[in-house]
Known about the structure:
Chain A has about 260 residues and is α/β, with parallel strands linked by helices. Chain A is built from nine helices and ten strands. In chain A, helix 6 (about 190-205) links the parallel strand 7 and strand 8. Chain B has a single domain, classed as MetI-like (MetI-like fold). Helices cover about 80% and strands about 0% of the residues of chain B.
Amino acid sequence: MDFLEVNGIHKSFGKTEVLKGIDFSMEKGEVLAIIGSSGSGKTTMLRCLNFLETPDKGSISVNGDMLYSSDEPPYSDTQKREKRLHFGLVFQQFNLFPQYNVLKNVSLAQELRQLKGKKFSVTEKREIIRNIDDNSRRLLDTVGLSEKVNNYPCELSGGQQQRVAIARALALNPDILCFDEPTSALDPELTGEVLRVIRELKTSDRTMIVVTHEMNFARGVADKVIFMADGVIEEYGTPDEVFGAPKSEKTKSFLEKSLENP
Amino acid sequence: MSFLEVTKQLANGFGVTVVIFLITLVVSLPLGLVITFGSMSKILPVKWITKTFVWIIRGTPLMLQIILIFYGPGLLFKMQALPRLTAVLIAFIINYSCYFSEIYRGGIESIPKGQYEAGQVLGMTKTQIFFKIVLFQVIKRIVPPMGNEIITLVKDTSLARVIAVTELVKAAEDIVSMKMIIWPLFYIGAFYLVFSALLTVLLNYVEKKMNYYSG
Lengths: 262, 215
């Protein structure tokens, strides 16, 4: 069984069918790039994985744990909250919490998870918070922002904000880290630093799914590439297969266009 | 009547004004949030009942509401009237909660969806998302319109005189009609001005405090 298995995902918004049966699977440690033009359904697919949208049909499982299946009754909110933590998500618009400094942005979810509904003595609590802070600082160090722990998001550049968002998504140690066009909201000169961090995560064997418009990045970093068009997977393969020898006409014309206007 | 005597008498009225102001504020701020949850409820009957209620309260004069709450129970059901100050407080609290609720609603709806989604993907509960992420941002955004309402409340307290509660204006009027002197009316204007000036300073301070981040 593969690490991530996605079978027959359908999703409609009103009368518009956005996903028309998506099947794919991933191995642990793999990096999957999803490319395709706007409106092809790639972001919706990613949002289905992260429970931000509920598919109409199909199934998703990670490491044998069924996350969604249209054949079974829906999970309770509590079950969903546990299951969604298989995934982490980095948003296009960062979505950092503006009122908290960088460190708190990374540590907040860990604190809420570890302290909620349990009784601790003051010393125990202090110990837990110290561990969380250490972990958060370490994560911020890996994205190159150990200098900025006390700054607020509004004081950072877009690239730095996105790196904080990556550290925040790593904080709960998800099995699969997803990126939704992580550089699309950035000025061109800032995309490099974010892509570099994602590349470094690959070397540490992180399983990742990256929805991206950066073709060179997809080609250079991904182990597998999915090209989506009109709600279906039009082409799937290694970067060399998809970029080097595309089989489908749609893939060919998309690649030609994106290489013309990178 | 000497200046000091007038001041003493007005001070009693001012005390009532401050009581109406403070109790209304302390109760309406949280109650307004409850009404907001009602008017944003996914349960449609709750939503429409709340919205109709807010429409009635915002659509009729506060003075009328005070009169109805004080005289209504007796005229309609032959019940004993509430104490005057209690009737005033009930009217003010209901009225101001409804206004506050709409300000809260505007604030809550102005928070980008991405903030909720960021909390969701980090496994937070709806309650955690609201209280740990959204609420503070809402408060920061609504301080200016809230300040407006709060300063209006200072002056609206004078409506209490319609059922003969001796707040500041009534206290001055009593002196005017008994002693045939007009200047206490100008004098109470200064009370209101100083009170609202203090509030303005306080509100500016809060606004500045919350400006440590932008966005």
